[in-house]
Write a structure and sequence with these properties.
The chain has 215 residues and is α/β, with parallel strands linked by helices. Helix content is 29%, strand content 20%. Strand 2 (27-31), helix 2 and strand 3 form a beta-alpha-beta unit.
Length: 215
C-alpha cells in the first residue's frame, strides 16, 4: 500500500504510462493545453488510457477551456476527472461538473498566504484542490509544470473540506521533506520526472513512486 497518493501528470508515451501504473500511481494526468510541451491530442490520450488498469483515475488537464474544447476531448478519451489549471471561477467549476458529470480538481497557484486563503472559494464546488507554485512572470511561463516550488510552510496545518494535493517542483529527492512540512497526503509531479520539458523519464517516475511508497 502506497503511503502517499501520487499523480503523475503530463504523460504522453506508453512507456511512461506503464511505469506510472505499475509503480502505484493513483492518478494519471493528460494535458489538453496546446501551448504545453506535454500536450497531447484526444486520440493519443485514448490510446494511452487503453492500457491503464482499473482503479487508477485518468485526469484531463485544461486551462480556461470552453465547453466545446472539453467536449472534443471527452468524445474520444476516457477521462474520469477534469483538472482546471487556469483562472476558472467557482461558478465555472460548478457548471462544468454539472455539464460533464465528472469531478473537478481545481489548481490554486500559490506565492503567499493570500493565495492559500483564496482556495476557500472553491471548497463548496471543487472535488479536489491542488496547490501549485504561482508561475514566474515570464511571457513563456506555463500555468504549471515549471519545476518551481512554493514555501510549503504556507499550507502546513491548514485543513479543507475537500481532499487536496501538493504540486510544484517536487522530485524523488525533495518529496519526503515536502510531505513532512506541508502535511499533504497526496502529491502531483510532472517536470520532476522528466529528462527535459515534456519528455518523461521512466527511471525518474519509478524513483518518485518508490519514494512515495516509502513514506
Amino acid at each position: 500500500m502506497m503511503g502517499i497518493a501520487t499523480k503523475i501528470c503530463g504523460l504522453s508515451t506508453e512507456e511512461a504510462v506503464s511505469a506510472a501504473s505499475a509503480g502505484g500511481a493513483a492518478f494519471l494526468g493528460f494535458v489538453f493545453y496546446p501551448p504545453s510541451p506535454r500536450a497531447i491530442t484526444p486520440r493519443r490520450a485514448a490510446r494511452l488510457c487503453a492500457g491503464v488498469p482499473p482503479g487508477i483515475t485518468r485526469v484531463g488537464l485544461f486551462v480556461d477551456a470552453d465547453d466545446r474544447a472539453i467536449d472534443r476531448v471527452l468524445a474520444e478519451a476516457p477521462v474520469e476527472m477534469l483538472q482546471f489549471h487556469g483562472g476558472e471561477t467557482p461558478d465555472r467549476v460548478a457548471a462544468a461538473k454539472l455539464r460533464f458529470g465528472r469531478p473537478v480538481m481545481k489548481a490554486v497557484p500559490v506565492a503567499g498566504p493570500e493565495d492559500v486563503a483564496s482556495a476557500a472559494r472553491y471548497q463548496g464546488v471543487a472535488d479536489f484542490l491542488l496547490f501549485d507554485a504561482k508561475p514566474p512572470r515570464r511571457i513563456d511561463a506555463l500555468p504549471g509544470g515549471n519545476g518551481l516550488a512554493f514555501d510549503w510552510e504556507l499550507i502546513a496545518g491548514c485543513s479543507w473540506r475537500v481532499p487536496w494535493m501538493l504540486s510544484g517542483g517536487l522530485n524523488a529527492e525533495s518529496l519526503a521533506e515536502a510531505v513532512r512540512i506541508s502535511g499533504t497526503a497526496a502529491v502531483d509531479v510532472s517536470s520532476g520526472v522528466e529528462s527535459r520539458p515534456g519528455v518523461k523519464d521512466v527511471e525518474k517516475i519509478r524513483a518518485f513512486l518508490a519514494a512515495a511508497r516509502a513514506l
